[in-house]
Design a protein that fits this description.
CATH architecture of the largest domain: 3-Layer(aba) Sandwich
CATH topology of the largest domain: Rossmann fold
Strand content: 5-15%
Number of domains: 2
CATH class of the largest domain: Alpha Beta
Number of strands: 5
CATH superfamily of the largest domain: Toll/interleukin-1 receptor homology (TIR) domain
Distance between the termini: 118 Å
Structural class: alpha/beta
Strand order of the largest sheet: 2-1-3-4-5
Number of helices: 9
């Protein structure tokens, strides 16, 4: 027995089909690697799980399986099989690596420690590698929906967390009588996380609202300053239009120049801001050449 335990390097080996099971398999591996028992239960086991998942062997040759994959498989205490439609359907003449892993693991010393995970498809659909025949009473863990952004759906989060414990418990040797306590502690942990997430979201919304109010106030201040500038410019135009040139041609030219430039400035400010000048429009002459010299 000691030799068998000494040979164990992994708590679980995850077998999956990359075409439609990769997302769930990677999600499960992350969840198991990060998982730690609640503080009140760490007297049982405070260690982190060791999980093996391979991403290259399906494209490798048979000797790669024998030299790399099979040793990791046989040195794992549990085999987790991700059941998906592609994991069951395999073209004729193409090696079925999942079936081979199941057969090799079942023939080993830990052959009864196989966990079936439904990753996609119908929950009651067929299982790969004749699992249903080998283990007629095998329990199926439902991880459908696991993957990116799974945490945004509260109902899905609660279900996946509960299903995940069905995998964690055997990997950490949690007895069946401790499962109610483990579920209770996990639910408390999920409630705490939801509270933290709600606080973060509320903080973000508050910050965004504050920035929106600040931006609105800044816009109003800018429009007020623009209206003041337009009014001051308009007043300048009115004053210039009312100047007495005392019969001098140069005074008339200066007055006309001020009026025309002031009118151009008001038109530009008004068109860019959409705000009416708010003063009586001055009838500006189109060009200096129309005045008598």
């Amino acid at each position: 027995m000691a030799e068998v335990l000494a040979a164990i390097r992994y708590d679980a080996f995850i077998s999956y089909r990359r075409s439609d099971g990769g997302r769930v398999a990677r999600w499960l591996r992350r969840q198991l690697l990060w998982y730690r028992l609640p503080r009140s239960m760490r007297e049982r086991s405070g260690r982190r799980l060791r999980i093996y998942i391979d991403t290259t062997y399906e494209l490798g040759a048979a000797d790669f399986y024998e030299q790399n994959v099979k040793p990791a498989l046989l040195s794992s205490s549990h085999l987790i099989v991700v059941a998906t439609p592609d994991a069951v359907q395999r073209a004729v003449g193409v090696d079925d690596w999942i079936a081979r892993e199941i057969a090799d693991f079942a023939a080993g010393s830990n052959g009864q420690n196989i966990i079936a995970v439904r990753g996609a498809g119908d929950f009651a659909g067929p299982l790969p590698g004749d699992l249903a025949i080998r283990f007629p009473n095998i329990e199926i863990v439902d991880l459908r929906g696991a993957g990116a952004f799974w945490y945004l759906n509260p109902t899905r989060v609660s279900r996946l967390a509960s299903e995940k414990l069905k995998i964690v418990a055997p990997l950490l040797d949690i007895p069946i009588e401790e499962m109610p306590r483990l579920r209770q502690e996990e639910e408390h942990r999920q409630q705490t996380r939801r509270g933290v997430l709600a606080g973060v979201v509320l903080g973000i919304l508050t910050a965004v609202s504050g920035l929106s109010v600040f931006a609105l106030e800044s816009r109003n201040q800018a429009l007020g300053a623009l209206e003041d500038s337009m009014f001051a410019t308009g007043s300048m135009v009115l004053m210039a239009d009312g100047l007495d040139d005392n019969g001098g041609g140069s005074g008339a030219r200066i007055r006309l120049l001020l009026v025309n430039q002031g009118c151009d400035l008001i038109d530009k400010l008004s068109s860019s801001s959409g705000v009416e000048p708010g003063i009586k429009r001055v009838c500006c002459l189109p060009a200096l050449s129309r005045t008598g010299s």
